[in-house]
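Handover notes (outgoing to incoming on-call)

Open items:
1. Aminotransferase: sequence verified, structure written out, both below. Nothing else pending on this one.
2. Nothing else urgent.
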Amino acid sequence: MQISRRLRNINQGGSDGWEVFTRAREMKAAGLPVVELTVGEHDIPTDPEILRAMYQAGLDGHVGYQNFQGQPALRERVAERVERSTGTPTAPEEILIVPGGQAGLFATHNLTCDPGDTALYIDPYYATYPGTIRSVGAVAKPVTARAEDGFQPDPDAIDAAAEGAKSLLVNSPNNPTGVVYSRDTMEGIARVCRDRDLWLISDEVYDTQVWEGDHLSPRALPDMAERTLVIGSMSKSHAMTGSRIGWVVGPREAISYMGDLTTNTTYGVAGFVQMAAVHALDMGPAFEAEIAAPFRRRRGVVMRALEGQNVVRAIPTKGAMYVMLDLRATGMSGEDFAMALLDTHHVAVMPGESFGRAAAGHVRVALTVADERLEEAMRKLVAFAAGRVR
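Aminotransferase structure tokens:
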């Protein structure tokens, strides 16, 4: 039987970038004490208060088919949160509830691209970005953000790549680099989108994790609300990764068409999960700050571990639950370094190459273990790197 070209093309027959993660899990299953600094998932479970709200919502009857665009109460709460955090007027009709940010990526690229269209994204990138673009039949075209520029995207480079493109995907605070795009960067991106008539897809799932400066949503910039689609999620802000609950913010017509897509794909999100999300959002910004606090603190743990040496350098990390480390002084690729570190010291980090060519010679450290374990793992990483310098 023949498999469709679209699905065969998602990973283009190559690596999915998760070899180190898979190897680490195999070692753990064999009983080895591996410190996993790979996946961006909290080391705490979803708050019991949210889980109790989910359970009660099920008992109260929120178990049947739902409004495909989302429960009105949840769309209202999300609109309130977006307006409060960005200063941009937002109505419930501009919100689509989706099963997690990944579903939002899929929906927005289905909206903006026909098969064969070009969709831009920034390299380094979250691992699923090019595969998501290819899964809708579009052509995934990277635009390099250089390590020498602190991985801030260059609007001129985007403009040079934009001829014939339909959309641009950006992510700030950024996974994998931890970079928060500056106002100058965002305004330059917005200018290119207006000049080139591009849809801007802004992945803002880390909007509560900003350690320096402020988060700027491009939807808040002049003349950008009508061409910007913002993806949000409860996964990072409320430690609800497994609940698969997120949203897309966009123009009403766009939301309506993406609602048609959900009717024919996900068929909505479980009602008891949506009602738990309402409860979680009602817990307010203070709760979101509490969830984010460990990552701010652990960023400091990593920075202190790098003091007094010049082999391992941190990319200026201003947000998200990651630190990107430059290891090019060792002469090793990120892939070789990560695999050797895992085999030698049982510390698992993600190779920069898993996130694109621009991050070659780097590794990403997820700040997702207790402070003491992170500090010990970083000592091992720094010492290992120092021993590889020629």
